Each structure stands twice: as C-alpha cells, then as structure tokens.
C-alpha cells in the first residue's frame, strides 16, 4: 500500500530527527492552532499564546473551527466538481479531523497529496497519524514555503505530483506567518508559475478588517516570542495573492460565507460572527 510515510525522511531543513528539534519553550503556530482546535499536541507556551488570542477575540476558537470548515468545503469542491487529483498543501498543521487527503481521497481515492510544513512536530505526527487510500498517495515533507525551490524540486514532491497536470496549491492559514520582508507575493507567484492552466489556488488569511478596535501590535503579540511573526492583511492585500487567476464564486470572502453548506452546522461566532479570516479559490487561466 502506498502510504503517508513513503520514503519519509529528514528534510531540507535539518537532518536531526524531528522530535529533537521541537522547542516547547516558545509558541509555534502549528501547536497554538492545535490548542485552539481542541487538539492534544501543545505545550504551556502554546496554550498561553492561544489564551492571549482568545482574550483579544472571544470568538477565536469558533473562528478557527469555521476556518477548518472552509478548508473542508473548498477541498471537497476541488476534488469533486473541479476534478483536481493532485494537491500541494503548504502549511499543513498538525493532523486533525478532516485533513486534505481524507477529504480529497474520500471523493476520489486516486487523489495524491503532498503536505509541507516547516514545523518538525507536523512531521512527527504526520508519520503517526496519516495513512493514504490504497489507490492514492500521500506524503509529508518538512520544508519552508519561503524556499520554493526546496519544495518544487524536492524528489518526494516530484515522485507524487506531476507538474504537467493541474495541481491545487493550498495555502490555508499560513501566509500570515510570512512577513512583508520575505515578499510573500513573489513567493506565491513562484508556486503559481510552477503549475499548468487549470490548476487552482486555495488560500486563506487572517485579517483585522472586521476588528478595527484591535491594534495590530496587540493581536500579533502572542507570537512575538515564537519562530514566526503574525501579519494580518487587508482584503486588498490578500486579493493580490490571486492576481491573474480567475476567482471561483463567490471570490475572496470571509471564510464563513464561502459556499456555506446548508447540511453542515455552522456554530455562531461570539463577538460579531466574524471568523477574522478571508478565504478564496481561484483557477489558472
Ligand atoms: C494555522 S496553521 C494552518 C493549518 C492548516 N493549513 C489549516 O488551515 O487548517 C499554520 C501552519 O503553517 C505552518 N507554517 C508557518 N510558517 C511556515 C513556513 N514558512 N513554511 C511552511 N509552513 C509554515 C505552521 O507550522 C502551521 O502548521
């Protein structure tokens, strides 16, 4: 059986085993997110950062769950109606319920999924938790999205994905960990350029557009001690990441309003009903 762990190995980031490179003393985005989602893979530093976020926005947990629902709906659309069979999911997060490969292979068992994350904890849990369908293939690599070549030229990525056929690039909840100094727009363009016409971009991003009362410095403070700063962006700034590609309806919108599913319970989000995140899907012409 072709499984998640096929050829799994230490990555372009470091050769020490992933477990030895986990730093519990500072908050890491993957673990804070896991805490907010109600997972079990976090340390005191992550919980502290998560609680600071909840203090600023009482709807943080519900908003994060709404974001996961958006991801699920969008992947379902890509694997179904859009007929996408290959997924490059960058900024995977710690495996939880409804991971990309489970959703995509649930619709098309032959779907192929490559997960990419720069946090070693994702690799540790990825190996333990994820398994692929018989027909499809799933793998995870540890790499940094700020180094597109290390991902696009990675042998495991190329063993699973065929870049001459459409690929869905997924960047869900990850670009707000890339500062303007790292030129996120240019990075996204590099990935977009590597895939052919008919490929899709699924992207979501934190925003303070719905929370004018919150100072950006306050919002980003929980991550000040961590390995990555957090950068909320406006609708116009997030929109830029999609440039030259064609939005699927309804365009770039609050994640809760992207094709809501009437069969899916949508819990109320305290503090105004906003998830503080934009999401959209676009196709390469
Ligand atoms: C908020 S989680 C999002 C998880 C998942 N994509 C989702 O939307 O549910 C962000 C993930 O991006 C990863 N990440 C942050 N910066 C990254 C980078 N420069 N390269 C690769 N992954 C990164 C973090 O480790 C974390 O797992």
Task: Please describe what this structure looks like.
Helices cover 32% and strands 14% of the residues. With 285 residues, the protein is an alpha/beta fold. It has one domain (18-283): 3-Layer(aba) Sandwich (Rossmann fold). Strands 1, 2, 3, 4, 5, 6, 7 and 8 form an eight-stranded mixed β-sheet that branches. Helix 4 links the parallel strand 1 (86-90) and strand 2. Helix 1 packs across helix 2 (44-56). The radius of gyration is 18 Å and the shape is globular. The model is unreliable at 1-13 (pLDDT under 50). S-adenosylmethionine binds next to helix 1, helix 3 and strand 2.
In short:
The chain is an alpha/beta fold.
Please render the helix and strand layout as text.
Elements: H1 29-36, H2 44-56, H3 60-79, E1 86-90, H4 100-107, E2 112-117, H5 120-129, E3 137-142, H6 148-152, H7 155-160, E4 168-172, H8 184-193, E5 200-206, H9 216-220, H10 235-240, E6 246-247, E7 253-254, E8 277-283
Parallel strand pairs: 1-2, 1-4, 2-3, 4-5
Antiparallel strand pairs: 5-8, 6-8, 7-8
The structure holds S-adenosylmethionine.
S-adenosylmethionine is lined by residues 29-30, 33, 68, 71, 90-93, 116-119, 122, 144-146, 172-174, 177-178, 228.
Which structural traits does this protein have?
285 residues, Rossmann fold, eight-stranded mixed β-sheet, 10 helices, 8 strands, 14% strand, binds S-adenosylmethionine
Q: Can you say what the CATH homologous superfamily is? A: Vaccinia Virus protein VP39
Contiguous uncertain segments of 5+ residues:
1-13
Cofactors and ligands: S-adenosylmethionine
Largest sheet: 8 strands, mixed
Strand content: 5-15%
Average pLDDT reading:
90
The CATH class, by name, is: Alpha Beta
**Morphology call:** globular
* Individual helix count: 10
CA radius of gyration: 18 Å
Label the structural class: alpha/beta
User: Do you know the CATH topology?
Assistant: Rossmann fold
């Amino acid at each position: 059986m072709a499984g998640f762990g096929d050829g799994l190995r230490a990555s372009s980031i470091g050769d020490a085993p992933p477990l030895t490179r986990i730093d519990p003393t500072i908050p890491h985005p993957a673990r804070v997110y896991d805490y907010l989602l109600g997972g079990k893979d976090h340390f005191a530093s992550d919980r502290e950062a998560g609680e600071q976020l909840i203090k600023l926005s009482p709807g943080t947990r519900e908003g994060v769950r709404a974001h996961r629902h958006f991801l699920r709906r969008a992947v379902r659309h890509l694997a179904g109606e859009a007929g996408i069979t290959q997924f490059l999911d960058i900024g995977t997060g710690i495996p939880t319920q409804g991971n990309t490969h489970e959703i995509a292979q649930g619709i098309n068992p032959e779907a192929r999924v490559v997960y990419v994350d720069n946090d070693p904890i994702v690799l540790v849990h990825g190996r333990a938790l994820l398994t692929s369908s018989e027909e499809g293939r799933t793998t995870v690599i540890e790499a940094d999205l700020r180094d597109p070549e290390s991902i696009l030229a990675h042998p495991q990525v190329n063993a699973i994905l065929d870049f001459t056929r459409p690929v869905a690039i997924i960047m869900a909840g990850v670009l707000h960990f890339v500062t303007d100094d790292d030129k996120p727009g240019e990075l996204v363009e590099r990935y977009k350029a590597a895939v052919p016409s008919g490929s899709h971009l699924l992207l979501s991003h934190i925003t303070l557009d719905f929370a004018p009362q919150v100072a950006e410095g306050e919002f980003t403070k929980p991550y000040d001690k961590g390995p990555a700063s957090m950068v909320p962006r406006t609708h116009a700034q997030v929109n830029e990441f999609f440039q030259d590609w064609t939005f699927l309806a309804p365009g770039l919108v609050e994640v809760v309003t992207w094709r809501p599913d009437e069969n899916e319970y949508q819990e109320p989000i305290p503090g105004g009903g906003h998830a503080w995140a934009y999401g959209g899907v676009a196709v390469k012409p």
